[in-house]
Each structure stands twice: as C-alpha cells, then as structure tokens.
Automatic annotation (TrEMBL):
Belongs to the histidine acid phosphatase family. The keyword Hydrolase applies. SUPFAM superfamilies: Phosphoglycerate mutase-like. The keyword Magnesium does not apply. Keywords: Hydrolase, Signal. GO terms for molecular function: phosphatase activity. Pfam families: His_Phos_2 (PF00328). Residues 1-22 form the signal peptide. This is Acid phosphatase.
Length: 438
C-alpha cells in the first residue's frame, strides 16, 4: 500500500515537475559530483576568446542541517575531516604575505560537535577539495591554449570572488591552484568576498526582504499546498523516529534529504530508521520544491538579478574594449557559490529542466570574437554541456554561439529594477525568512 501511495504521489508531481521519478533516479546518482569537463567548442569560425566567467558550487561537504538533538544524535557514522588549511595573518593586506612566520590551523574539537567526529556542519571534505582540483585542471587544460590565462600578470588578469563561507573559500582555493599552478603563476591571488548582509550570489533576504514574500507567495499556491499535504504521512513517520524533537510540524524533509545525500556520497548508510523508499520520496519532493520556487522567471530578477547584471556588466566592458581594439582585463573571473546560486542563474538563462546542482557544479560564460569580422559571440557551458540560452542559436555550426547583442538584449529583461533596494524594503512584509545555504 505504501509503494502504491508513493507511485501516486510521484504521479501527481510529474504533472507539474519537468521530470518523472523514473527519470529522476538516474540523475540522483550524479548528485555527488558534476563532470569536471568543459563542453568542447565546435565551429568553423576562427574565434579568439576575450573573456571567461566561471561560476561554481562548492565541492563535497558534511551535512549542513541539524535533524536531531545533541543528546540523541546517531552514532553510526563518524565524520573525519582530514582536510587542513594553514593561515598566516598579515597587517599588510594589500602586500604579499611574508615568506616566514608562524602558521595557524583551525580544527574542530573531536566529540564536541553535533556531527560525530572532528567535523563541523557544512565543512568541505577532502573529496570536495579533490573535485575542485580536478575541475580546475579541466579548466586549465581547456583555456590554456586560448591564451586567456596568461595574457597578463595574474593580479591584472584574474578576479576571484567567494561567498563568505569556509567551504566556498576552500573550493575556490583548490580550483585556482589547478587553474594557475603556483610554480607557473607565483603571484598572490586575492579572493574577494562580501559579508552575508550584502552578498548577492544567492537569493539573500538580508539585501531584499521582499524575497521572503515571493517565496511565501509561491508556497501558498494550491499546487504547492497539495504537495505538502501529500507529504504529511512521511513527516509523521519521520517524527516518530525521533527526528526534529518528534514534532511533525518541525520536520524538514529537505534537511533530511540533504543529510542523507551527504552520507550517501561517502558510502555511509542513510540516517537510522530512514529507508531507501523514504529517502527517495523526500529527496524528489525537495528537488521538486526547489524547481517550483525558482523556475518562475517572473521572480528571477529579484532572486539573482543583481548578480546576473554584474556578470553582464563584466561582459559589456569587455565587448566595448574589443570594439576599440583593447585587451579585456580581467580576462578570467571565478565566482564560488552555492546550490542557490545555480537554480536562479539557470532560470534567468531560460534553462527548462532545473535539476539539483551537484557538488562542484560549474558554469562557464565565454565571450568570443570572430577574427575576420570582429563579430562577438557568447557561449555557455554547464557541467560539460553547452546551453542554448534564450534559444538564440540553432547550433547548425556545431556549437551554440549566440550573437552578443542578441544575448545581451534577451538577458537584460532579468536585470533588477533600478530602484531594486528601495523596492525590496517597500514591498516586504515584516516577516523575513532565510533559506539554508547548501
């Protein structure tokens, strides 16, 4: 009977979600890591790469959510974080760090954390570090022949930015280490960041409280409410296992799915009492919820529009330089973010199937110039596959090369209003809710 109700539940979701359960399960297997490759460029045109902007999700990490109390935490899994990072503080932030001096290392006290072992919540694992080493190597191998990586000294040619999160910082460091090996590029590389009050690489309710209202509006629709009602038996079942203090109203199936996924990526068993059937139900419902919230393009400019506009401003400056015969500096950008960076970003690029972004997901936004005509083209690669953004290319020449002006004209509809910050405050209710960064 339970399996029949599960099938009926997913049948209902398939009416609104882009993929069925049968299609979702194989994709679930790739959750643990995206392909570390860049889509090959196939074209008869003679092109020169002027600029590339790489946006990534951090690598594999420990769970980010508390699904149980410290007094009854499961003791079946021990998280061992062998990844270490040494730091040397300096009073001269704009100068090279001195070659000598004491090193400091951050370490979580074993046995004192919610997670059994020596790891904190959301900490990058050695596996996650390796994922970004591999991705950085793939980026290096693809772009090195174009000349974009060494067209100028690193401090002029490279701009790196990360959210103010330890796992995104370390992912950026691992990635850049492979893209710009220190033996070849010895220069210091600055990782720029913004604090959580001003970060715009995800739908930040600190910047824009109105985003909370937008999420609440989406979650109040009959479709969403029906989906939540269908999940009530599962929430009750989870609460009876002792999670979330045994209160079905507190149960977050997304948090449980995330914790189970983190375990699965390390070949650990699912949480005690959680069956494979329960896990699949909560995981698919969580992915559906994210798809349903973020796929509404009419709201996308509020979620990610200001960051998307920054990307296009970078591209616009390069396009202007190219028309004047000047070099684009910086030519290489990297942005290290979260899953909530990718969902709305893919939405504004009008990607139809918004599947959950695996660890170390990556998107490359390239600006090319045709050597003879000087025409400019935009190409986008996502996890090793080209994206035909805005359907502006028929791909007849082998790759989805979108004329720059066509791309820009389609993209600017997702820029935020000119008085974005003012409207964010004026339209917001008094209630602000934050979504967990994953």
């Amino acid at each position: 009977a339970k399996m029949r109700s599960l099938v009926l539940f997913f049948g209902l979701l398939s009416l609104f979600a882009p993929l069925s359960l049968a299609q979702k399960i194989p994709q679930h297997q790739s959750y643990c890591g995206a392909d570390a490759k860049i889509a090959p460029l196939k074209t008869s045109l003679n092109l020169t790469l002027l600029q590339v902007q790489v946006i990534t999700r951090h690598g594999d990490r420990t769970p980010v959510d508390t699904t149980y109390s410290i007094t009854n935490r499961p003791d079946d899994v021990t998280w061992n974080c062998s990844l270490q990072e040494y730091q040397r503080p300096t009073t001269y932030p704009d100068q090279m760090v001195p070659a000598t001096g004491r090193l400091y290392r951050k370490a979580f006290i074993r046995g004192r954390e919610y997670l059994k072992g020596n790891c904190g919540f959301g900490q990058l694992t050695s596996k996650g570090l390796q994922q970004h080493h591999d991705l950085g190597q793939a980026i290096h191998d693809f772009y090195k022949p174009t000349g974009i990586l060494n067209q100028a000294p690193v401090h002029e040619n490279v701009f790196v930015r990360s959210t103010d999160s330890y796992r995104t910082f370390q992912s950026a460091e691992a990635n850049i280490f492979s893209v710009f090996p220190p033996e070849t590029y010895p220069d210091e590389i600055v990782i720029n960041t913004l604090d959580s009050e001003t970060e715009n690489m995800y739908d930040n309710t600190h910047i824009c409280p109105y985003i909370s209202d937008l999420h609440k509006q989406r979650e109040s629709t009959p479709i969403y409410q029906n989906e939540q009602k269908a999940l009530e038996p599962l929430r009750k079942q989870v609460a009876e296992l002792g999670y979330f203090n045994g209160d079905p109203e507190q149960v977050s199936l997304g948090a449980l799915a995330d914790t189970c996924n983190s375990r699965r990526c390390h070949n650990f068993p699912l949480l005690p009492g959680i069956t494979q059937e329960m896990f699949l139900e909560m995981w698919v419902s969580d992915e559906w919820e994210n798809w349903y919230v973020y796929s509404d393009r009419s709201r996308a400019s509020w979620y990610i529009g200001s960051f998307f506009e920054e990307l296009l401003i970078n591209m616009e400056k390069c396009a202007d330089n190219a028309t004047q015969g000047s070099k684009c500096l910086p030519g290489y950008f990297m942005f290290s973010g979260h899953d909530s960076t990718f969902y709305p970003l893919l939405a504004v690029l009008e990607v139809v199937n918004l599947n959950y972004p695996p660890y170390a997901s990556h998107l490359e936004m390239e600006l090319w110039q045709e050597d003879k005509s000087g025409d400019l083209y935009v190409r986008i690669s996502h996890n090793g596959v080209e994206i035909n953004a805005y359907n502006c290319s028929d791909g007849s020449d082998g790759s989805y090369l979108c004329p720059y002006n066509d791309f820009y004209n389609s993209a600017q509809q997702y820029f935020p209003p000119s008085d974005y910050l003012e409207q964010c405050q004026e339209l917001a209710s008094s209630v602000k809710r934050e979504r967990k960064l994953r």
